[in-house]
Amino acid sequence: xxxxxxxxxxxxxxxxxxxxxxxxxxxxxxxxxxxxxxxxxxxxxxxxxxxxxxxxxxxxxxxxxxxxxxxxxxxxxxxxxxxxxxxxxxxxxxxxxxxxxxxxxxxxxxxxxxxxxxxxxxxxxxxxxxxxxxxxxxxxxxxxxxxxxxxxxxxxxxxxxxxxxxxxxxxxxxxxxxxxxxxxxx
Length: 186
Hints:
By secondary structure, the chain is of the alpha+beta class. The chain has seven helices and four strands; from the N terminus they run ββααααβαααβ.
């Protein structure tokens, strides 16, 4: 059921259509001192995590590819690199690292390394921790938010609650934690 919601952004009146089923059931159950997360803070956490993930992906791929290359020998390895199954193996390992990183961190505390540094936490609409299913849905939806030139992320600038598409689709939200909350140093 859709409803029109009125509000302000930086003192300017705005309105948006809100799917009532996607609004938080109990906004008062969010962490104490939780504030809206800016787009800049979201991007900062994403870039921080991208650096960590680049190293982690290279490490995991190295654990598989180096021993495989040594076992096959240089000449055979050069031939194997061109085969479809080695490319598929690399893609599957990379995807497993990316998904696993986000899901594990989101389920076990609501923060990735980058989110911790930027004092951002992901919670369910009820303010509670994410389930594995919700974290997987959020991860997949985040890619859909990013695909149309990041429009799903930019949406948070106009959304009355500051939510992006994947926040709405997965019924989650990012909250900014205050200094001294035990999460992050920035």
